[in-house]
Amino acid sequence: MTDTLSAEDLAKFAADIFIARGFSADHAAKIAEVLVWADLRGAPSHGVQRIPRYIEIIDDGEMNTRPAIRVEKELPAAVLIEADRAPGQVSMRLAAAEAARKARAAGIGLALVRRTTHTAALGYYTRLAALEGMAAIAGSASWSNMVYHGAREVGVASNPFSIAIPHGKGEPLVLDMATAVAALGKIVHAARSGKTIPEGWALDDAGNPTTDPKKATLPLALGGPKGSGLSLMIEAISSLITANAIIADTIEGKPGGKAHRQNAFLIAIDIAQFRDLPGFERDLTRMIAALKAQPRQAGFEEILMPGERGARELEKRRKAGIAIPPATWTELMKVADRFGVKAP
Questions:
Q1: Going edge to edge, which strands form the sheet with 202-203?
Q2: What is residue 299's three-state secondary structure?
Q3: Average pLDDT, the chain
Q4: Cβ atoms of residues 329 and 14 within 8 Å
Q5: Collapsing DSSP states into helix, strand and coil, what is residue 195?
Q6: Rounded CA gap, 141 and 263, in Å?
Q7: Contact between residue 8 and residue 327 where contact means Cβ atoms under 8 Å apart
Q8: Rounded distance between C-alpha atoms, residue 324 and residue 2, angstroms
């Protein structure tokens, strides 16, 4: 097997696995597309390395391969989507479309998503809305896996948060971040790659700092109280408003409290209903140029905007291919062999 695959071959391989596990061809392709998009942008923590874990949560009955997704409640500027344990790549694409639809009618649209599963690279969905001329804000909530500021055991989750805005004919500006110093997937990727992690990323089971990713079980919040507070607020909006609380169930040890489940929200703002979109994009270009022209600190070759490094990596990897670490490929082959899927 070559250690580098084209995005097309990797996406087909991933989709074939999901089809073999019971997803429709349409849903399988959507899941694969978002995973490979993350790999293209240099974020393997949310890429195809997730496939073995997805198979586990399907086997555990926590991800539904044939979800009955539906808009359960509709208001003038909002919808509530019942995801029926669908993969996030499916439910969040619907959320982006529904939020944009509402925004085109009301200027702003909200999609709340209840009972989804791993939402993957959240910036993928805000980017979809931005490509339609929308500003978009999204967050997703999960079970406890991160230390709340001041605590020594898991309390909140490393909930991701994303904002995207249109930028003319080029790629939208996309901020996509975890509320942890580093997403749990990055720690898992470091462990699989045989690398250490920086100090300040995580604690071990005893609540002590560690640089060993295999012992790092408690990710730390970004900015201490700031990341903790942001994570808590994402849980409140995504989970409490949709009547599907997660964090308290996990901490209190309720049945199913540690099961894989997520909720999410996506807000779209139709810029053209507030001002001319070309004017907005010109102002954005001007702001970026002013920031990039500022004097740089020592060690900085360039001042980068949100998502700029990932967009450049995507262009390089589309041409050169995506390198798959040996440990990740070994796990993928185990899954492929189980379902009789041929490797690229």
A1: 209-210, 202-203, 218-219
A2: coil
A3: 95
A4: no
A5: coil
A6: 5
A7: no
A8: 9
What are the residues whose beta carbons fall under 8 Å from the beta carbon of 316, sequence distance 6 or more? none
Task: Write down the residue that tokens 């001319």 correspond to.
Answer: 276
Q: What is the pLDDT of residues 44-103, one digit of tens each?
A: 999 999 999 999 999 999 999 999 999 999 999 999 999 999 999 999 999 999 999 999
Domain ranges of the chain: 4-180+221-278+308-339
Instruction: Return the biggest CA–CA distance within the chain.
Output: 56
Closest by alpha carbon to 222, among 204, 208, 202? 202
* Alpha-helix runs per DSSP H in 172-219: 184-193
Q: How far apart are CA 195 and CA 282, in angstroms?
A: 43
Count of positions (residues) in the chain: 344
Task: Give the H/E segment covering residue 251.
Answer: helix 247-252
Residue 253 to residue 247: CA distance in whole angstroms:
10
CATH top class, domain 4-180+221-278+308-339: alpha beta
Q: Answer whether residue 25 shows pLDDT above 50.
A: yes
CA atoms of 31 and 220, how far apart (whole Å)? 28
Between residues 151 and 20, the one the model is more confident about: 20
- Residue 315: count other Cβ atoms within 10 Å of its Cβ: 12
Q: What is the pLDDT of residue 12?
A: 98
Q: Is 0.85 surpassed by the pTM of this model?
A: yes
- What is the average pLDDT across 274-285? 97
